[in-house]
Design goal:
about 850 residues; mainly beta; Neuraminidase; six-stranded antiparallel sheet
Length: about 850
C-alpha cells in the first residue's frame, strides 16, 4: 500500500508521491535531522518475498553508494521498516533527458556539455568496476542548474563478477538462445543483445546511441517492432549525422560512429579515452547554434522536379557563399605527452624557448628528483638534485629550489630556498622557512613566501614585506613586467581551498576570484593582463580558468580528469599535468591475523577508530562533496560505510553514537548522530575556534583549542548540551586529549607534548618521543601512549611517557609504495591489537598543451 503524506519511514516524513519506478514508488520526504528534503525509493509488496528482487534492490543501493560523484545520484541511507526496503537519496529538481527530447534535438554546445558530464560519471563508475548496462534517456536526469545525473543502477554489476541473470520490471527484456539479455532495445550493445559477457565498452555503445539521439532527435537504431530494433542494432549502421544535419561537425559524428562500432574491440577502449575527445569537442564548440531538425519529406519528384533542382541550386550557392564568409573554426587543443613513467609530479617549468621541460617527481620508493626533457622526447635526464622541490627558472638558467623540507606533503612544504645551475651542482642556500618563490623577469631578484612567527609574508625582493597572511600562500608568480605578484591565498593550513590574489609593489592586495574548494597551480599569461590557474569549484572536477585583473573569471578548459597548471610559455603553450589521487584504507580488524582492504572512495582522510577497533570515521572531500565535505562511518568487518551527512569528520564519541564535524561555510561545530537522533550545533559564544576537537571519556563534553580576545590560545571544554565553553588549561596549552580515567590531559605546549592533571597542575614533559613519531591515543589504562613512526616500514609502539621506554607492537609495510605522497595516517584500538591506516597516492602525466581557447 502506498505511503501517505505525513507518515514516517525510518527517520523521514513522507511529503508527497513523486512517481513509480520499476520496482516500487518514489516519494518526496523530509529529513528533520539535517533539515533537508530527500527522495525515498521503496520496493513494491510483490517483491518483498522475492529474494532476487530484494537482492537487485540492494544491489542498486550498493552500486550507487560506491559512486560518490557530482554526476551520479547521491545515496544517503538504506534501510527497511515493517518488511519494506527503502533507499534514501538526494532530491533532484528538473527533468529526464527523455522528457527534454520530446521538444526536439538539443543544441550542439549544450549536447556536448551533457555528454561530457555523462562520460565523467561513466569514468567514475568504471574505475570502481561498475558497468551501468542500462544507459538511456530515461536514466539521465537534467537538473535545473544544468547538471546531469545518472540514475537507476538497478542493472549495474561489478565487472569482475558474474552477470546477474534476472529481469528488470519496467524494461523490455529480450530472450535469446543463450539466455536473457538485460537492458533496453535501441541502447543495448550488440554483445548485450546476444547475452554475451559485457564490459565497460558496452556502456560506451549505449552512450553513443544517446548522444546520437540528442543531436538529431531520432534514435540511432529504430524499428516498428522489438525484433526490428534488434536487427538494426546487430547489422545496420546508423544514419550519417552530417547528412541529417550539416551543422554537426564531422569530428563529432566520427566520435559517435566510433562509439557505435559493432565489435567492442573497435570502439573506444575506456570511458577515460572517450572523455578526452568529448572534452576537446566541447571546448571547440562555442557557437551555441541549435541543431536543425531533419528536413521534411521531399515533394513529388515528377511534379516538382524542375522546381526542386532550381531551388537546390539556389540553396547550394547560398550555402557555399555563407561558408566562405564564416570564420574558420578554432583549432582543437593539442596535447604532447612529456612524461611516460608512473610517477607523482609536483612542479614543472618550461624554459624560455618553450621546448625544454624541467620537473620534479617521485616514483615507487625512489626519492624526489629533478628531471630535464625536451618536448617530443620520451627520455628524461636526472639533474641529481634529490629531495628538492623545483620552484622557478631564471632567464639565465638558474633554478630556485626548496631543500630540507619540513613537511612531507609537497603543497604544504616549507624549507630552505636555494639556487642551483640548470646543469646541476650543489645548491647554494639563500633563505630558511620559505614556502614558495619565483624569479623576477630579469632574474636578479626573488619573490618569496617567508614563514615568520606563525605568519606567512610575501616579500619582494627578499626582505621587503608586501603582504602578510595568517593562513598560507602558494604558487607565487611575478608578472612579466615585474610590477605585480600573483599567488594562491589559503585561509587554513590544513585545507587547500583558496583564492587567486594579486599584490602590487606598494602592498595593495586584491582577491580576484571567489573561493575555490581546491586551488593548485597558477601562472601569468604572456600579455601580463590575465592569470591562468587550476582549481575546483564545489561539486566539479579541477579545471583550467583564467581571470583578469578586474576579477573577470572564465573557464578555459575542462577535461573529464583532474588538471593542474604548472607554467605558460611565451607562445601561449601551457604545461599541464593530468593526475589521479587515490586513497587506500587498510585495517587489521579485532581477532584477525591478516589485514583487510577497506578502501571505499578516493579523496578521503581517516580521522578516528573506536576503542574496540570495530568502527572507523573518515571524511570525503572529493568531487560532489560540497563546500562542507562529507562524513562517513565504516566498519572494519568490511560492510559498506554509511554517509552521515555534511561536515568534515573529526572525532567519534566513546559510545559510538555521535561524531564531531565542522561546517566550513557557516564556521559551525556540529554533533552528528550515527543513528537515530537530532543534529546539535555547539555555539562557541565568541571564542575563536581553532579546531582539534576531541571527546571527554564520558562523552558529555567536547575539548577544543580556541582563543578569546586578549588571550593566547588554550584548551577549552564545553558541554554537549551547550553553554559557554570554559578554559581547561593555562594559556599556551593546546590540542588536549583526556585520558580514559578522566584525570590527565595530553596536550601541546609549543612544539612539545606535555602531560598535566585536568586541573592544570603537575605539568611534565612526555619523555622519549622522537621528532618523527606521532602520538595516536592513550592506552586503555591511562598509563601509556600509542605512537607510530611514519616511515617506509611503519612501526607502532607503546610509549611510557615517564620513563621513555618503548615496546614495538606492529611493523606495517604498504604493499605498493608507488605514488605515495603522504606518510600514512594510522589509528589503533584501545588495547593496541587492532589498527587502521590510510595511504594517499598521486599518479601524474605531464603534457604541453597548444591551441587552448583564447
Amino acid at each position: 500500500m502506498p505511503l501517505q503524506p505525513g507518515s514516517k519511514i525510518g527517520a523521514y516524513e513522507i511529503v508527497a508521491v513523486l512517481g513509480a519506478g520499476g520496482m516500487g514508488e518514489v516519494y518526496r520526504a523530509r529529513d528533520s535531522r539535517l533539515n533537508r528534503d530527500v527522495a525515498i525509493k521503496t520496493i513494491n509488496p510483490q517483491y518483498e518475498a522475492d529474494r532476487e528482487g530484494l537482492r537487485r534492490f540492494e544491489q542498486e543501493a550498493r552500486a550507487l553508494a560506491a559512486l560518490n560523484h557530482p554526476n551520479l545520484l547521491a545515496i544517503y541511507d538504506i534501510g527497511s521498516q515493517d518488511g519494506m526496503a527503502y533507499i534514501v537519496s538526494e532530491l533532484l529538481e528538473g527533468e529526464t533527458l527523455r522528457t527534454r527530447l520530446i521538444q526536439g534535438p538539443i543544441p550542439l554546445r549544450r549536447a556536448l556539455d551533457y555528454a561530457g558530464q555523462i562520460v565523467r560519471a561513466l569514468v567514475a563508475a568504471h574505475e570502481k568496476g561498475i558497468v551501468h548496462r542500462d544507459l538511456k534517456p530515461e536514466n539521465i536526469f537534467l537538473t535545473k542548474d544544468g547538471h546531469v545525473k545518472l540514475l537507476d543502477f538497478g542493472l549495474a554489476k561489478l565487472a569482475h563478477r558474474e552477470a546477474a541473470a534476472d529481469g528488470h520490471t519496467g524494461q523490455t527484456t529480450i530472450t535469446v538462445d543463450s539466455g536473457r539479455a538485460l537492458g533496453t532495445p535501441g541502447y543495448m550493445s550488440p554483445e548485450q543483445l546476444r547475452a554475451q559477457p559485457i564490459d565497460f565498452r558496452s556502456d560506451i555503445f549505449s552512450f553513443g546511441s544517446v548522444l546520437h539521439e540528442m543531436l538529431c532527435g531520432k534514435r540511432a537504431f529504430r524499428g516498428d517492432t522489438t525484433a526490428d530494433i534488434v536487427t538494426s542494432t546487430l547489422s545496420a549502421d546508423p544514419e550519417d549525422l552530417c547528412e541529417v544535419n550539416p551543422l554537426i561537425p564531422p569530428a563529432t559524428a566520427l566520435i559517435i560512429r566510433h562509439c557505435l562500432e559493432k565489435r567492442p574491440e573497435d570502439r573506444f577502449q575506456s570511458a577515460r579515452d572517450l572523455m578526452f575527445d568529448i572534452g576537446s569537442l566541447a571546448v571547440s564548440s562555442s557557437s551555441g547554434n541549435a541543431v536543425a531538425p531533419p528536413p521534411p519529406d521531399p515533394p513529388s519528384r515528377w511534379r516538382w522536379l524542375w522546381w526542386s533542382l532550381a531551388g537546390a541550386a539556389v540553396l547550394a550557392a547560398a550555402y557555399f557563399a555563407a561558408r566562405s564568409l564564416m570564420p574558420a573554426a578554432p583549432p582543437l587543443p593539442s596535447f604532447t605527452q612529456v612524461t611516460f613513467r608512473r610517477s607523482s609530479i609536483w612542479s614543472a617549468r618550461l624554459t624560455g624557448d618553450g621546448n625544454t621541460v624541467l620537473y620534479n617527481a617521485t616514483w615507487a620508493d625512489h626519492p624526489m628528483d629533478i628531471f630535464s626533457t625536451r618536448v617530443g622526447s620520451t627520455e628524461a635526464r636526472s639533474l641529481g638534485i634529490l629531495n628538492a622541490d623545483l620552484l622557478s627558472i631564471s632567464p639565465s638558467g638558474e633554478l630556485a629550489v626548496l631543500i630540507d623540507r619540513i613537511d612531507p606533503v609537497p603543497w604544504f612544504n616549507r624549507g630552505t630556498l636555494a639556487s642551483v645551475p640548470m646543469g646541476g651542482g650543489s645548491p647554494r642556500e639563500i633563505l630558511e622557512d620559505v614556502q614558495s618563490a619565483d624569479w623576477s623577469p630579469d632574474g636578479t631578484n626573488l619573490a618569496v613566501v617567508h614563514h615568520v612567527n606563525d605568519e606567512q609574508r610575501l616579500e619582494y625582493p627578499i626582505g621587503k614585506v608586501l603582504f602578510r597572511c595568517g593562513g598560507w600562500m602558494t604558487d607565487v608568480r611575478v608578472s612579466p613586467k615585474g610590477d605585480r605578484i600573483a599567488f594562491l591565498e589559503h585561509v587554513t593550513r590544513w585545507d587547500d581551498r583558496g583564492w587567486v590574489s594579486v599584490v602590487d609593489l606598494n602592498g595593495n592586495h586584491q582577491r580576484l576570484t571567489e573561493e575555490f574548494t581546491s586551488a593548485h597551480g597558477l601562472a601569468w599569461a604572456p600579455d601580463g593582463r590575465r592569470i591562468w590557474f587550476s582549481g575546483t569549484r564545489s561539486g566539479e572536477p579541477p579545471a583550467l580558468y583564467d581571470v583578469t585583473l578586474r576579477g573577470e573569471v572564465k573557464l578555459k578548459y575542462r577535461a573529464p580528469t583532474n588538471l593542474q597548471l604548472h607554467d605558460i610559455a611565451q607562445n601561449g603553450s601551457a604545461l599541464i599535468s593530468s593526475y589521479k589521487d587515490s586513497t587506500s584504507i587498510v585495517a587489521l580488524p579485532p581477532g584477525q591475523s591478516t589485514e583487510r582492504d577497506l578502501s571505499w572512495l578516493d579523496d578521503v582522510i581517516l580521522f578516528d577508530l573506536s576503542a574496540d577497533g570495530r568502527t572507523f570515521l573518515f571524511q570525503y572531500y572529493g568531487p560532489g562533496s560540497g563546500v562542507n565535505y562529507n562524513s562517513y562511518l565504516g566498519k572494519t568487518d568490511g560492510s559498506p560505510p554509511v554517509r552521515l551527512g555534511e561536515g568534515a569528520a573529526l572525532a567519534l564519541s566513546p559510545d559510538g553514537k555521535w561524531v564531531i564535524t565542522k561546517l566550513f561555510q557557516s564556521h559551525q561545530t556540529v554533533l552528528q548522530p550515527t543513528g537515530v537522533g537530532q543534529v546539535r550545533t555547539l555555539d562557541r559564544e565568541g571564542i575563536t575556534d581553532e579546531g582539534n576537537d576531541t571527546w571527554s571519556p564520558d562523552g558529555q563534553h567536547v575539548l577544543f583549542t580556541g582563543m578569546e580576545e586578549g588571550h593566547a590560545s588554550r584548551c577549552y571544554i564545553q558541554d554537549v548540551n551547550g553553554g559557554k565553553p570554559q578554559p581547561l588549561c593555562p594559556e599556551g596549552i593546546t590540542h588536549a586529549h583526556m585520558s580514559p580515567d578522566g584525570k590527565l590531559l595530553l596536550a601541546r605546549e609549543g612544539k612539545d607534548y606535555v602531560i598535566l592533571r585536568v586541573d592544570g597542575a603537575d605539568k611534565r614533559p612526555v619523555v622519549g618521543l622522537d621528532p618523527d613519531e606521532t602520538i595516536i591515543r592513550w592506552s586503555a589504562d591511562s598509563q601509556a601512549l600509542f605512537v607510530y613512526r611514519p616511515r617506509k616500514m611503519i612501526e607502532v609502539l607503546l610509549l611510557d611517557p615517564v620513563s621513555g621506554h618503548k615496546q614495538l607492537l606492529h611493523q606495517i609495510s604498504p604493499s605498493d609504495p608507488a605514488g605515495i605522497i603522504q606518510f600514512p595516517v594510522l589509528r589503533v584500538s584501545a588495547d593496541g591489537k587492532s589498527y587502521i591506516y590510510h595511504v594517499v597516492r598521486k599518479t601524474s602525466e605531464l603534457f604541453v598543451v597548444r591551441d587552448l581557447p583564447k
